Amino acid sequence: MRGFGVGFLLAASVYDLLIADGSHHALWPSATVLLVGFAAVLWPVGRRPRWLTPQLRTAVPAGVSALFTTGVLLTGRPEVPFGPGEVAVLLSLLFIAVRHCPWPWALACGVLDAVALLLLPVRYFRSLQEEVLVYALLGLVLVGLTAGLAAYLRSLDYRRTVMLSETRRAERVAIAADLHDFVAHHVTGILVQTQMARMMAARQPQDLDPVLAGIERAATEALASMRRTVGVLRDTGPETADRRPVGDLAGVTDLVEGFATPAQKTVLQRDPAVSDDLPHEVQAAAFRVVQEALTNVRRHAGDATRVTVRLARPGDRLEVTVTDDGHGGIQLPEAAHGGGFGLVGLRERVTALGGELRAGPGAGQGWRVSATFPVGKG
Hints:
By secondary structure, the protein is an alpha+beta fold. It has helices at residues 2-22, 28-42, 54-75, 84-100, 105-118, 120-124, 130-203, 208-234, 249-259, 280-300, 342-352, and strands at 265-270, 306-312, 317-324, 356-361, 367-374.
Protein backbone atom coordinates (compact mmCIF):
# COMPACT_ATOMS: atom_id res chain seq x y z
CA MET A 1 0.00 0.00 0.00
CA ARG A 2 2.79 2.40 0.89
CA GLY A 3 4.60 1.53 -2.35
CA PHE A 4 1.47 2.28 -4.35
CA GLY A 5 1.10 5.65 -2.60
CA VAL A 6 4.72 6.61 -3.25
CA GLY A 7 4.42 5.55 -6.87
CA PHE A 8 1.26 7.60 -7.35
CA LEU A 9 2.87 10.70 -5.83
CA LEU A 10 5.92 10.32 -8.08
CA ALA A 11 3.83 9.83 -11.21
CA ALA A 12 1.55 12.75 -10.36
CA SER A 13 4.52 15.01 -9.61
CA VAL A 14 6.21 14.13 -12.92
CA TYR A 15 2.94 15.01 -14.62
CA ASP A 16 2.99 18.41 -12.82
CA LEU A 17 6.47 19.12 -14.16
CA LEU A 18 5.45 18.07 -17.68
CA ILE A 19 2.51 20.47 -17.52
CA ALA A 20 4.76 23.32 -16.37
CA ASP A 21 7.30 22.55 -19.08
CA GLY A 22 4.61 22.34 -21.77
CA SER A 23 3.25 25.74 -20.81
CA HIS A 24 6.75 27.24 -21.16
CA HIS A 25 7.08 28.18 -17.49
CA ALA A 26 10.14 27.80 -15.32
CA LEU A 27 10.31 24.37 -13.66
CA TRP A 28 12.16 25.36 -10.51
CA PRO A 29 9.17 26.92 -8.61
CA SER A 30 6.98 23.82 -9.08
CA ALA A 31 9.95 21.51 -8.48
CA THR A 32 10.77 23.35 -5.23
CA VAL A 33 7.19 23.03 -3.93
CA LEU A 34 7.06 19.34 -4.82
CA LEU A 35 10.50 18.59 -3.39
CA VAL A 36 9.66 20.23 -0.04
CA GLY A 37 6.35 18.39 0.05
CA PHE A 38 7.97 15.06 -0.81
CA ALA A 39 10.54 15.50 1.98
CA ALA A 40 7.77 16.20 4.48
CA VAL A 41 5.58 13.28 3.44
CA LEU A 42 8.12 10.55 2.67
CA TRP A 43 10.99 11.18 5.11
CA PRO A 44 11.56 7.78 6.83
CA VAL A 45 10.47 7.69 10.45
CA GLY A 46 13.67 6.02 11.63
CA ARG A 47 15.86 8.70 10.07
CA ARG A 48 13.68 11.68 10.87
CA PRO A 49 15.46 14.24 13.12
CA ARG A 50 13.75 15.21 16.35
CA TRP A 51 13.27 18.81 15.26
CA LEU A 52 11.20 17.68 12.26
CA THR A 53 7.91 17.62 14.14
CA PRO A 54 4.54 16.90 12.49
CA GLN A 55 3.56 20.56 12.74
CA LEU A 56 6.77 21.63 10.99
CA ARG A 57 6.39 18.96 8.30
CA THR A 58 2.85 20.04 7.48
CA ALA A 59 3.18 23.82 7.84
CA VAL A 60 6.35 24.51 5.83
CA PRO A 61 5.33 22.85 2.52
CA ALA A 62 1.87 24.42 2.70
CA GLY A 63 3.48 27.80 3.35
CA VAL A 64 5.81 27.37 0.36
CA SER A 65 2.86 26.46 -1.87
CA ALA A 66 0.84 29.45 -0.67
CA LEU A 67 3.83 31.77 -1.20
CA PHE A 68 4.21 30.46 -4.75
CA THR A 69 0.55 31.22 -5.46
CA THR A 70 0.88 34.68 -3.91
CA GLY A 71 4.00 35.37 -5.98
CA VAL A 72 2.19 34.43 -9.18
CA LEU A 73 -0.58 36.90 -8.38
CA LEU A 74 1.71 39.75 -7.32
CA THR A 75 4.10 39.48 -10.28
CA GLY A 76 1.33 39.34 -12.85
CA ARG A 77 2.77 36.29 -14.56
CA PRO A 78 0.66 34.58 -17.20
CA GLU A 79 -1.53 31.63 -16.20
CA VAL A 80 0.50 29.09 -14.24
CA PRO A 81 -1.09 25.60 -14.40
CA PHE A 82 -1.28 23.27 -11.43
CA GLY A 83 -1.44 19.49 -11.45
CA PRO A 84 -2.48 16.46 -9.39
CA GLY A 85 0.97 16.06 -7.80
CA GLU A 86 0.79 19.17 -5.66
CA VAL A 87 -2.85 18.43 -4.84
CA ALA A 88 -1.93 14.92 -3.63
CA VAL A 89 0.99 16.24 -1.56
CA LEU A 90 -1.17 18.88 0.15
CA LEU A 91 -3.90 16.33 0.89
CA SER A 92 -1.28 14.00 2.39
CA LEU A 93 0.01 16.84 4.56
CA LEU A 94 -3.57 17.65 5.64
CA PHE A 95 -4.03 14.01 6.68
CA ILE A 96 -0.78 14.08 8.69
CA ALA A 97 -1.72 17.36 10.36
CA VAL A 98 -5.16 16.23 11.52
CA ARG A 99 -4.06 12.79 12.68
CA HIS A 100 -0.62 13.38 14.17
CA CYS A 101 -0.19 17.04 15.16
CA PRO A 102 -0.88 17.88 18.81
CA TRP A 103 -3.83 20.12 19.53
CA PRO A 104 -4.25 23.02 18.73
CA TRP A 105 -1.49 22.64 16.13
CA ALA A 106 -3.61 20.07 14.29
CA LEU A 107 -6.28 22.69 13.62
CA ALA A 108 -3.82 25.42 12.61
CA CYS A 109 -1.72 23.22 10.31
CA GLY A 110 -4.81 21.57 8.87
CA VAL A 111 -6.33 24.94 7.97
CA LEU A 112 -3.05 26.08 6.41
CA ASP A 113 -2.86 22.95 4.24
CA ALA A 114 -6.50 23.32 3.21
CA VAL A 115 -6.07 27.01 2.30
CA ALA A 116 -2.95 26.26 0.24
CA LEU A 117 -4.92 23.59 -1.64
CA LEU A 118 -7.94 25.82 -2.26
CA LEU A 119 -5.70 28.63 -3.58
CA LEU A 120 -4.23 26.48 -6.37
CA PRO A 121 -6.90 27.35 -9.00
CA VAL A 122 -6.13 31.06 -8.52
CA ARG A 123 -2.77 30.55 -10.28
CA TYR A 124 -4.51 29.71 -13.53
CA PHE A 125 -7.87 31.45 -13.24
CA ARG A 126 -7.05 35.04 -12.32
CA SER A 127 -10.59 36.23 -11.74
CA LEU A 128 -13.53 34.75 -9.89
CA GLN A 129 -14.81 32.64 -12.75
CA GLU A 130 -17.16 29.68 -12.78
CA GLU A 131 -14.20 27.30 -13.12
CA VAL A 132 -12.70 28.64 -9.88
CA LEU A 133 -15.91 27.87 -8.03
CA VAL A 134 -16.01 24.36 -9.48
CA TYR A 135 -12.42 23.66 -8.49
CA ALA A 136 -13.02 25.21 -5.05
CA LEU A 137 -16.07 23.00 -4.50
CA LEU A 138 -14.11 19.91 -5.56
CA GLY A 139 -11.25 21.00 -3.28
CA LEU A 140 -13.64 21.39 -0.33
CA VAL A 141 -14.97 17.88 -0.91
CA LEU A 142 -11.42 16.44 -0.97
CA VAL A 143 -10.46 18.44 2.12
CA GLY A 144 -13.56 17.25 3.98
CA LEU A 145 -13.02 13.59 3.11
CA THR A 146 -9.33 13.66 3.98
CA ALA A 147 -9.78 15.56 7.24
CA GLY A 148 -12.74 13.37 8.22
CA LEU A 149 -10.80 10.14 7.65
CA ALA A 150 -7.80 11.47 9.58
CA ALA A 151 -10.01 12.63 12.47
CA TYR A 152 -11.74 9.24 12.60
CA LEU A 153 -8.41 7.38 12.72
CA ARG A 154 -7.16 9.81 15.38
CA SER A 155 -10.22 9.04 17.50
CA LEU A 156 -9.53 5.31 17.15
CA ASP A 157 -5.93 5.91 18.26
CA TYR A 158 -7.20 7.83 21.29
CA ARG A 159 -9.69 5.12 22.21
CA ARG A 160 -7.00 2.49 21.85
CA THR A 161 -4.67 4.48 24.10
CA VAL A 162 -7.38 4.96 26.74
CA MET A 163 -8.30 1.27 26.59
CA LEU A 164 -4.66 0.25 26.97
CA SER A 165 -4.23 2.63 29.91
CA GLU A 166 -7.36 1.30 31.62
CA THR A 167 -6.28 -2.29 31.01
CA ARG A 168 -2.87 -1.62 32.56
CA ARG A 169 -4.47 0.17 35.50
CA ALA A 170 -6.90 -2.72 36.10
CA GLU A 171 -4.03 -5.18 35.84
CA ARG A 172 -1.97 -3.23 38.37
CA VAL A 173 -4.93 -3.08 40.77
CA ALA A 174 -5.32 -6.85 40.42
CA ILE A 175 -1.60 -7.33 41.03
CA ALA A 176 -1.83 -5.15 44.15
CA ALA A 177 -4.74 -7.31 45.36
CA ASP A 178 -2.65 -10.42 44.74
CA LEU A 179 0.22 -8.90 46.70
CA HIS A 180 -2.11 -8.16 49.61
CA ASP A 181 -3.47 -11.71 49.67
CA PHE A 182 -0.07 -13.39 49.36
CA VAL A 183 1.58 -11.26 52.03
CA ALA A 184 -1.46 -11.40 54.32
CA HIS A 185 -1.37 -15.19 54.11
CA HIS A 186 2.31 -15.36 55.06
CA VAL A 187 2.13 -12.66 57.75
CA THR A 188 -0.89 -14.34 59.33
CA GLY A 189 1.14 -17.53 59.50
CA ILE A 190 3.97 -15.64 61.16
CA LEU A 191 1.56 -14.27 63.79
CA VAL A 192 0.07 -17.68 64.53
CA GLN A 193 3.45 -19.36 64.82
CA THR A 194 4.79 -16.50 66.94
CA GLN A 195 1.91 -16.98 69.38
CA MET A 196 2.69 -20.70 69.44
CA ALA A 197 6.38 -20.00 70.03
CA ARG A 198 5.59 -17.76 73.00
CA MET A 199 3.48 -20.49 74.60
CA MET A 200 6.07 -23.17 73.91
CA ALA A 201 8.96 -21.06 75.24
CA ALA A 202 7.80 -21.68 78.77
CA ARG A 203 6.44 -25.23 78.43
CA GLN A 204 8.29 -26.96 75.59
CA PRO A 205 11.45 -25.00 74.74
CA GLN A 206 13.02 -28.08 73.15
CA ASP A 207 10.31 -28.09 70.41
CA LEU A 208 10.76 -24.46 69.40
CA ASP A 209 13.04 -25.05 66.44
CA PRO A 210 10.36 -26.30 63.96
CA VAL A 211 8.13 -23.36 64.86
CA LEU A 212 10.92 -20.84 64.40
CA ALA A 213 11.83 -22.51 61.07
CA GLY A 214 8.21 -22.04 59.98
CA ILE A 215 8.35 -18.37 60.91
CA GLU A 216 11.56 -17.95 58.94
CA ARG A 217 10.07 -19.72 55.91
CA ALA A 218 6.89 -17.63 55.98
CA ALA A 219 8.86 -14.39 56.26
CA THR A 220 11.11 -15.42 53.34
CA GLU A 221 8.10 -16.26 51.15
CA ALA A 222 6.41 -12.96 52.03
CA LEU A 223 9.52 -11.00 51.04
CA ALA A 224 9.84 -13.01 47.81
CA SER A 225 6.19 -12.30 46.94
CA MET A 226 6.68 -8.58 47.52
CA ARG A 227 9.90 -8.54 45.49
CA ARG A 228 8.27 -10.31 42.53
CA THR A 229 5.16 -8.15 42.60
CA VAL A 230 7.04 -4.87 42.88
CA GLY A 231 9.14 -5.97 39.91
CA VAL A 232 5.98 -6.60 37.90
CA LEU A 233 4.46 -3.25 38.93
CA ARG A 234 7.57 -1.46 37.70
CA ASP A 235 7.28 -3.16 34.32
CA THR A 236 4.82 -1.62 31.83
CA GLY A 237 5.39 -4.18 29.09
CA PRO A 238 2.64 -6.44 27.70
CA GLU A 239 4.15 -9.49 29.38
CA THR A 240 3.21 -8.14 32.85
CA ALA A 241 0.08 -10.25 33.06
CA ASP A 242 2.06 -13.46 32.51
CA ARG A 243 4.20 -12.81 35.58
CA ARG A 244 1.51 -12.17 38.16
CA PRO A 245 2.05 -14.32 41.27
CA VAL A 246 -1.43 -15.90 41.12
CA GLY A 247 -0.50 -19.54 41.63
CA ASP A 248 -1.99 -22.70 40.12
CA LEU A 249 -3.07 -26.21 41.14
CA ALA A 250 0.54 -27.34 41.42
CA GLY A 251 1.10 -24.55 43.94
CA VAL A 252 -1.79 -25.78 46.11
CA THR A 253 0.40 -28.66 47.34
CA ASP A 254 3.12 -26.28 48.55
CA LEU A 255 0.47 -24.02 50.05
CA VAL A 256 -1.08 -26.85 52.07
CA GLU A 257 2.29 -28.25 53.19
CA GLY A 258 3.50 -24.81 54.25
CA PHE A 259 0.33 -24.25 56.28
CA ALA A 260 0.91 -27.19 58.61
CA THR A 261 2.16 -26.54 62.13
CA PRO A 262 2.90 -28.86 65.06
CA ALA A 263 -0.59 -28.12 66.37
CA GLN A 264 -2.48 -28.22 63.05
CA LYS A 265 -2.50 -31.08 60.60
CA THR A 266 -3.30 -30.34 56.97
CA VAL A 267 -4.45 -32.92 54.44
CA LEU A 268 -4.69 -32.52 50.66
CA GLN A 269 -7.13 -34.84 48.90
CA ARG A 270 -6.77 -34.52 45.15
CA ASP A 271 -8.91 -36.50 42.74
CA PRO A 272 -6.73 -38.13 40.01
CA ALA A 273 -9.18 -36.69 37.47
CA VAL A 274 -8.02 -33.16 38.39
CA SER A 275 -5.24 -32.53 35.88
CA ASP A 276 -2.79 -29.65 35.55
CA ASP A 277 -4.01 -28.73 32.05
CA LEU A 278 -7.13 -26.89 33.21
CA PRO A 279 -7.52 -23.26 32.07
CA HIS A 280 -4.99 -21.05 33.82
CA GLU A 281 -7.63 -18.61 35.11
CA VAL A 282 -9.52 -21.51 36.75
CA GLN A 283 -6.34 -22.84 38.38
CA ALA A 284 -5.48 -19.35 39.65
CA ALA A 285 -8.96 -18.88 41.13
CA ALA A 286 -8.82 -22.33 42.78
CA PHE A 287 -5.44 -21.48 44.30
CA ARG A 288 -6.85 -18.22 45.67
CA VAL A 289 -9.84 -20.04 47.19
CA VAL A 290 -7.52 -22.37 49.10
CA GLN A 291 -5.23 -19.51 50.11
CA GLU A 292 -8.05 -17.31 51.43
CA ALA A 293 -9.70 -20.22 53.25
CA LEU A 294 -6.44 -21.22 54.96
CA THR A 295 -5.74 -17.61 55.92
CA ASN A 296 -9.20 -17.36 57.51
CA VAL A 297 -8.57 -20.55 59.46
CA ARG A 298 -5.51 -18.90 61.00
CA ARG A 299 -7.39 -15.69 61.69
CA HIS A 300 -10.61 -17.10 63.14
CA ALA A 301 -10.05 -20.76 64.06
CA GLY A 302 -6.64 -20.98 65.67
CA ASP A 303 -7.82 -23.95 67.74
CA ALA A 304 -8.43 -26.13 64.68
CA THR A 305 -6.39 -29.34 64.76
CA ARG A 306 -7.18 -30.63 61.27
CA VAL A 307 -7.67 -28.80 57.96
CA THR A 308 -8.70 -30.70 54.85
CA VAL A 309 -8.31 -29.39 51.31
CA ARG A 310 -10.12 -31.38 48.63
CA LEU A 311 -9.85 -31.00 44.84
CA ALA A 312 -12.45 -33.01 42.91
CA ARG A 313 -13.65 -33.25 39.31
CA PRO A 314 -17.33 -34.28 39.29
CA GLY A 315 -18.29 -34.30 35.62
CA ASP A 316 -17.55 -31.03 33.87
CA ARG A 317 -16.77 -29.09 37.05
CA LEU A 318 -13.82 -28.46 39.35
CA GLU A 319 -14.78 -28.49 43.01
CA VAL A 320 -12.48 -26.97 45.65
CA THR A 321 -13.38 -27.52 49.32
CA VAL A 322 -11.57 -26.43 52.49
CA THR A 323 -12.88 -27.60 55.87
CA ASP A 324 -11.58 -27.33 59.43
CA ASP A 325 -12.63 -28.65 62.84
CA GLY A 326 -12.08 -25.44 64.79
CA HIS A 327 -14.47 -23.85 67.26
CA GLY A 328 -13.21 -20.29 66.91
CA GLY A 329 -11.96 -20.27 70.47
CA ILE A 330 -8.42 -19.06 69.67
CA GLN A 331 -8.20 -16.03 67.40
CA LEU A 332 -5.61 -13.51 66.37
CA PRO A 333 -5.75 -9.95 67.66
CA GLU A 334 -8.47 -7.83 66.05
CA ALA A 335 -5.90 -5.75 64.13
CA ALA A 336 -4.79 -8.89 62.30
CA HIS A 337 -8.23 -9.81 61.00
CA GLY A 338 -8.05 -7.56 57.95
CA GLY A 339 -10.82 -5.49 56.43
CA GLY A 340 -13.10 -8.37 55.53
CA PHE A 341 -12.82 -7.96 51.74
CA GLY A 342 -11.11 -11.31 51.09
CA LEU A 343 -14.23 -13.42 50.52
CA VAL A 344 -15.97 -10.56 48.69
CA GLY A 345 -13.16 -10.27 46.15
CA LEU A 346 -12.94 -14.05 45.97
CA ARG A 347 -16.64 -14.35 45.21
CA GLU A 348 -16.28 -11.80 42.41
CA ARG A 349 -13.37 -13.76 40.92
CA VAL A 350 -15.26 -17.08 41.10
CA THR A 351 -18.54 -15.77 39.68
CA ALA A 352 -16.65 -14.02 36.86
CA LEU A 353 -15.63 -17.50 35.69
CA GLY A 354 -19.20 -18.78 35.90
CA GLY A 355 -18.59 -20.53 39.21
CA GLU A 356 -20.17 -20.47 42.64
CA LEU A 357 -18.66 -19.85 46.09
CA ARG A 358 -20.21 -21.01 49.34
CA ALA A 359 -18.97 -20.47 52.89
CA GLY A 360 -20.60 -21.51 56.13
CA PRO A 361 -20.52 -23.87 59.13
CA GLY A 362 -19.44 -27.44 58.47
CA ALA A 363 -21.63 -30.52 58.85
CA GLY A 364 -20.46 -31.22 62.39
CA GLN A 365 -18.22 -28.42 63.59
CA GLY A 366 -15.74 -25.99 62.16
CA TRP A 367 -16.09 -24.07 58.90
CA ARG A 368 -16.43 -25.05 55.24
CA VAL A 369 -15.52 -23.06 52.11
CA SER A 370 -16.46 -24.55 48.76
CA ALA A 371 -16.07 -23.26 45.19
CA THR A 372 -17.28 -24.86 41.97
CA PHE A 373 -15.96 -23.95 38.50
CA PRO A 374 -17.21 -25.09 35.08
CA VAL A 375 -14.23 -26.53 33.15
CA GLY A 376 -15.82 -28.66 30.41
CA LYS A 377 -15.60 -32.38 29.88
CA GLY A 378 -12.33 -34.08 30.82
